[in-house]
Structures are given as structure tokens and as C-alpha cells.
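User: I want to check something. If I give you two sequences, will you return the structure for each one separately, not as a complex?

Assistant: Yes, each is folded on its own. Here is the first sequence with its structure:
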Amino acid sequence: MNNTQITEALLADIVSAPKAVVEKWRLSGKIVPKANGNYYMESLRQFHQIRDMLDTNWDEEAKTTPDRRYTAVELFAGGGGLALGLENAGFDHIALFDNDKHSCATLRDNRPNWNVIEADVREADYSGYTDVDLVTGGFPCQSFSYSGKKLGFEDTRGTLFYEFARAINEIRPKIFLGENVRGLMTHDGGKTLETIKDIISQMGYTLVEPRVLKAIFYQVPQKRERLFLVGIRNDLLQTANFAWPSPYRQVFTLKDALKAGIMYPTDCPSSPGQSYSPAKQAVLMMVPPGGCWKDLPLAVQKSYMKGSFGQGGGKTGMARRLSWSEPSLTLTTSPAQKQTERCHPAETRPLNVREYARIQSFPDEWSFSGPVGARYKQIGNAVPVNLAAAMGRSLVRLLNGI
């Protein structure tokens, strides 16, 4: 029997249920904890997410290697999370495009051999890239407000999806990988995604049904969700067989990210970071690990929340202190904004740059360029490296089959 134990909070994260619902399951006897309050994963097989972790093919998939050299071109490369993960999976980047000088400096500093092109993607020339295996990019989510008519490729001109599609159309890679926020699934009542599917079809590619992946299942200690789009050129469909990556057998927590252990051999190194004003620090000192504004005295709640206090919604990102025993909340581009606090679990300060990077599963030797705000932005916008690597291995297996 698998003796792995998880906490009630981790079970809630794994099955995407509110903690209050999981508590009801316990009180009704649907789930039965051990004497220490934890649960054997084996006793939770009724949940398909737990079954997938217990019966995972992760170890076999981790042995994936390319049958030959596979090349990649990346747009919107940012601080390098997606590119580094794909490199770890075996891809060789022949060009990376981004218009942010700090992101480009980060990519060049860490990988002097990469061909980093600092330019507006709208002016990028792809004529030199032939016989490329993979085009990737995390294009920003934008509306195509054309009242439901069937759009042509040119009709999306002016959006960054158009630029991603143009790169695919001009390079004609064997496969492509797009990533985006989960909200793209329902954006503009689903019309945005339908338009994307139409255009991909018009270009001669078949889109695998898009899927939202939860980073916690792929060795990332963070409750982050990303939508992935995988496309295959139609002339290769006959031999193409794509399978989404299997989950890892455990969920990593903030402690795994910041302390020496299974993820990193040492405690997180010190680094610069933002700080709180004395007034804000005084408020956050009252919040326990895993708590938020709701744990403050009523008078402090009203004073801190101001107009938000009487409005609906949980707003649990406000005055939020993280917990060692859970994955981090999704990182944003700043850990000290009032709506999206990411306070250290034991010290009353925002997470610093290196802590941010570890929660995104970057190696400690991957350095970030620019002022502190630019570093947070690069890390907060990145695809977690370990999630990108798991996706990359799935793409390598797809190309090996083709």
C-alpha cells in the first residue's frame, strides 16, 4: 500500500474544492482522516485526481529523449520559464523574440548561445526559419469583437494572437504550443477561443482540444493554472499521437520551495525584494500563516479594506500570508499589491525575488536582469519551468512518433 499522506488543505487543492466543502466530507464520513488529521492518499482513490497521481506514468515519461535534434522558435519569451523548461526537455532554440530589454538581457546573460532578438513582434521577420519543429509563445489574451461572424486570419490583425498565428503561418513548423490564462477558455463568451480554432484550421493545422493544467501536479509549489494549445500540421496527422503529461506523485509546498529538501539542496538564498510601509507591516503582523484580512480584528479589517469591506466575494488575496504547508497562491507581477499580497509565512515582508523564482521552479543559478520591479514582472509572468518541461517531454514524444 502507498503510505503517502496529505493534509486536508492539500486535498482541497488537488480536487479543486473549497476547504469548507472538504471539511463537510470529513464530517459526513465521506473521507476519513488518520489520528494526526492527515489522509492516506490510497484511501482517497474515489477522486480521479488522486488516482492519477497514485497510478502516474511520470517516471517513465521523465526518461523521454529526442530521437534527433528538435528546433524551436519562441515568441513573447519573457524571463525564460517556457524556454528553459523546453530546453530541459530536449529542444534546441534557434530564435527567441521579445520586446522587453530586461527580459532579453536575462535570456542573454543565462544563455549566451541563444539567438535573442529584441524587437516588436509586429516587425519580426521569420523568412530565415525553415524546417523548424516547434513554434511556441504565450500571446496575451485579447478580444476579437466581430459579433460572431466567421473570421479570417487577417481580421485579427492588430492583436498579438495575429502575430503568433503569422509566425506559425510563415514558419510552418511541424507543431506549435500556445499558452495563456485559463480565462481564454470563456473569454467573450467562448467566442475568442472559437475564433482561434477557426484560424488555426484555416492555416492547415489541427488543434488538440485545449486543456487547463494545474501547476501543482507538475513539481511546481504554486496554485497556478495555465491553458495550453497544441497544434499539429495537417500533413503529419496520420502518425501524430499527442498525450498530455502525467501528474507527479506528490504536491510540493512552499516549504519544499524555500527550504533545503527534495526540490532544492539548500535553503533559498537571500536576494533583494519589495518592502511594506510601517503601517502595512503592522497590519500583516497580525495575520497568521495561511490567513488573510478575515483574521484581523474587526476594526482593523474595516480600516484596511476601506470600501471593499462591505462588498461581496472572499477577496482572500488581501492581507494574505502564505503557509509553509501549502503551495503558494499564484504569483503575480508584484507581491505587495493590496489585492494580491504574497507575504512570507514566517517573516512580515513580501516574498523576495529569489523566493519568487523558486516558487516558479527556476534554478538558483538562473539570474534576472533589471531593477527589482522588472525582475518580479519577468518571474510572475513566466510559465513555471517544471510545468514547461513536463509539456516539453509530451511534445518530444509527439515528434518522436511523427
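And separately, the second sequence with its own structure:
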Amino acid sequence: MWFKIGYFLLTNPRLVLKIFAGALVGILFFLMILLAPLALFLSGPMSTSSMIDIYVKGTDQAEEITADGYYGKSEINPMDVLIISAVQRRQDFSSASVRRSRDLAKRFIEHTGYRAKKIGYDDNGNPIYKDFPVYRIKSLEEVAIDLGFSSDEVRWAIEMRGINNQSVSTAGVGSGAALNWWTDVRHAFPRGMEVAITDVTTGRSFRMRRTGGRNHADSEPVSVMDAMVIFDIWGGWSWNRRPVIVELGGQLIAASMNGMPHGFDTIPGNGMRGHLCIHFRASRTHIGNRECIEHQAMVLRASGAIYDRVARSADVYDFTLDIEPEVISPTYPILAQPEGFE
């Protein structure tokens, strides 16, 4: 039998080649199906937020003209540039570019004169002075008026700035209910639902829409302004987890959120490509199907149950839950720890 099979293969090389090619294509297709979700997930973190990057880069370029200033390079808040642009465009960013955002950011810079600064000494020991330009960064309201905004447009810009920089007296203190994702939150927060989210540390708020996820809520900012607030709070796109409060059906829920866009994207034109992850008590990761200890620590902090070692400072979180008495808030009850904690 093997002789006949060998003879058949030798006398029909084209058929053998077709069979081999078909099998190879089938295997590759099968591998593509298996690897597609992973490839999509991994491609997310490398994706940039095109809209926000445009305004950040444009602002950086505008700041360069103040690099030789008496006080050094001046800082322009890209949030203000985006707000002015949003009012001008009625939030239509279809033709946004780095050049346009740079030119708009330049309007925030005012040259107010020169000031002498000692730069060294001559051969005789006498001080040498040089005049350096002095720059002032205008306020959002000043720029709006300079651009001829109507009173309604000026008020609109100021209101947007106020909303995106709100800071409440309880900022840094969590007060959300640590509800279980599986039994209390998952079905009450369906896909397509929009919620207001407040960062515990800063007290600043933004809106998110749940767009997917089963083990936790994959969500996306509703607008460019919401994405810009997130970018500003996290200090750039970051995997750092932060304690947040989710307003859901009139109830304040303790949660944790990262700030790195990744994976699928369903809301075009919101300034961000990808989605962010919002975790609740006992929620799990998609990859590995496990509770993330950092996210769960932030959920407990958002509930007011515990503080981390840098209480009221959310720059970096590496919380390991080796809880000691001094990191437990005495003014809040200690909640029962979720399953998976040791």
C-alpha cells in the first residue's frame, strides 16, 4: 500500500503541491483566527490618541519660542488650547492639525518686555548681563476675548474649563460603595450606558460609555474633552491604576481605572483610539481571568476603606496590600476583603 501511495505522489507532483498549499493556507487561516484577538489587544497600547497628541505636540511647539525667556520655557496648558479650539470649531475636529494647534497655542503667549540676567564675568571680574525676553501666559478668558468670542462663547469656554478642573473638598477621600461586579454592577451598567466618573484624588470628573467587556467594564470617553481630562489627570497615557467613583443610577460606586488606550475602538472622533478598563470589586482581567491586585486595592481606596502609603497622591501606584495599621484610615470601616486576597 505504501508503495502505491509513494508511486502516486511521485507521478502527481502538481496535485501534491496543491494539497500542500491548501493545507498550509488552512493552517495559516486557523492561526489567524486564534491570534487575531491577541493581536488586536496588543496593537492598542501602541496606538496613539491622534486628536490629543495633535494638541499636545502643537502646544509643545508653541512653547519652544519661550525657551530663551528670563524664567525659562513657559508652560501652556494644552487643555486650554483644546477648549478654545472646541469653541471655535463647535467641536468639529475633522481638520485638526499640529500646525493649527501650534498657531492657536501661540495666542496664549504674550511678550511683556526684557529683563537683564547675569550670565558670567569678564576678564576683569566685572559681571556680564544679558537681556532676556519675559513672557506671560494669558488666561483662557483673555484669549477667548482676543479672538472675538461672543459673551456666550466666552461663558461656554469658561464653563468647560471649570468642569474639567473641578476640585471638591473631599478630593483624595473615597466614599463609594464597594459593590460586587458580578452580582451588583455588571447588569446595572450595560453596554452603551454612559456614566459620570470622578477621580478620587483630584476630584475631577469626565464621562465614559461602556462599550464591551465581561470580566470588567471596557469603556471609552464620550467626547474629546473627556479624553483630554483623562490624559491630563493621568499625566499622559498610563497603565497606572487610580481610584475612581462611578455614578451609576444615582449611587456612587467604588472603582479603579487605568489610563492606557488599548484594544477595540467604537467611538470615532473622541480623541482616543482604543478603550480603557474600569474594574469593580471582585472583577477580573480578560487575559488570565484573575483579580488584579492593584485594581482591587484602588477599589478599596475609592471606597474609603484604606489609604495607600502616599495618601492623597496618585502619581504612582504600586500598592501590594501588605496592609499595616498606619495605612488604614481610622475614620472608615474596614471592608471584608474580596476573594483572591491573602
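Because they were folded independently, the notes below concern the second chain alone. Residues 40-48, 166-170, 308-342 have pLDDT under 50 and may be disordered. The radius of gyration is 27 Å.
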